[in-house]
Amino acid sequence: MSWTDYRSAPAPGTVICPQDQVQGVQALTVETEKGKFPLLLAATDQGIRAYVNACPHQYLPLNYRGDQMLSADGTNLMCTAHGARFDIHSGQVVEGADCDLDPVPVRVEGAMLVIGQP
């Protein structure tokens, strides 16, 4: 599934938050006239990565049972509901799920992080 398939998917250019507020891994909700879109942001050494905050195993948020979604070595995002792991840079499944996280393109405009083009 692509992030654009979600009914609540925000339009390109939608403001997410100030770029300097993105540290570590955090879950947030982007609210627009389409509804609430669950987003997961990860600040990495390769830039900010964004994914739909829905584990493809059961479509629960990765932070369903807590906010510790980053592996101890900092390389994987983890689902707190059942332990599935995903590569932080690509969203590809490492173990515990049948498919990858849905990446969401983001870019920086001025000091703000915004939704990018699909």
Automatic annotation (TrEMBL):
<keyword id="KW-0001">2Fe-2S</keyword>
<keyword id="KW-0408">Iron</keyword>
<protein>
    <submittedName>
        <fullName>Rieske 2Fe-2S domain-containing protein</fullName>
    </submittedName>
</protein>
<dbReference type="Pfam" id="PF00355">
    <property type="entry name" value="Rieske"/>
</dbReference>
<keyword id="KW-0411">Iron-sulfur</keyword>
<feature type="domain" description="Rieske">
    <location>
        <begin position="13"/>
        <end position="115"/>
    </location>
</feature>
<keyword id="KW-0479">Metal-binding</keyword>
<dbReference type="InterPro" id="IPR017941">
    <property type="entry name" value="Rieske_2Fe-2S"/>
</dbReference>
<dbReference type="InterPro" id="IPR036922">
    <property type="entry name" value="Rieske_2Fe-2S_sf"/>
</dbReference>
